[in-house]
Amino acid sequence: xxxxxxxxxxxxVVRQLRRGTPAVRVAALAAVGCTAYSADTSWxxxxxxxxxxxxxxxxxxxxxxxxxxxxxxxxxxxNLNGPNAAPGVPGILVWVITGVQxxxxxxxxxxxxxxxxxxxxxxxxxxxWHLAMGIELRHRTPDASSNGFGALLVRELRERLLSRLGxxxxxxxxxxxxxxxxxxxxxxxxxxxxxxGPRRREKPGGRRIARRLSVAxxxxxxxxxxxxxxxxxxxxxxxxxxxxxxxxALASPWADTAPDPAASALAGQVRDQMxxxxxxxxxxxxxxxxxxxxxxxxxxxxxxxxxSPTKLGTSEALAAIERGWADGLTVRETARRATRAPxxxxxxxxxxxxxxxxxxxxxxx
Length: 365
Known about the structure:
Order of helices and strands: HHHHHHHHHHHHHHH
Number of strands: 0
Shape: elongated
Radius of gyration: 51 Å
Strand content: under 5%
Oligomer: single chain
């Protein structure tokens, strides 16, 4: 039964990976072999601990976990080759099934044999499936990386460990790493020595800090390496003047100090166009604009050149209103001659009627 399962899994893998690279094919076939190794453990565990005595029952039920592991691995491979480049939930289920399959291995063979069965069986099967999918992804897209939970967790832990060890920066040899660490230590000791007073420097604690500082300076090669000396002085200056950060004058981030390049270019074009238009206007001869009559120029009839009467002065307007009242003219005619509003002329007529009596002739208001 196990041989039939291995043959069927091998046939499925060959069909699925017939276009893959040799490394992917070999890893997938090895994963099939480890899955079959785990299937043998499940076959024995079904009879000894699950009370499956019948061959037909064992044949129908023993390979459920192995088939599930194989199916979830194929689904994870499909998701990994998708647009998200992440195994997703099937990738997590592969490791969950692997953890459950370890239990039958220890139950059947004890601590020593169970470790061998668990490692060669479900653990190696899951690892080989994972490696096969990673090799296939990098072969198709060399710059791609898995975005699964496990891959992200491993990358984050690796970066944090390298940062903790002080070797996160690449392209540095061991001597340069040692010099950089000694420079950082020298900066810390120099800043600490500057904080204590001159009296405390003469005490045993101050002398011990001074000795450690001299050792760190020598280890950092400050005297023979100009670049290292510059790093030391820059870091020390920044640390000793860190307090001034609290009172340093900074520009407000809400003020738009940088002009918009597009708006500045548009304003420049408008200014150039206005300057050209002004220059073109000034090229014409001045008589073209002086031949027109002035708006306030009076004609012989006392009218302006535009055809409308020129407004009289205050005394002239009052005299015209009094003449209109004496001649018995209407309010509108008197208002037209006096170039005043009819309401104003009417008020003057009322005052004249009150002072001088009725108008000498019949007049219509």
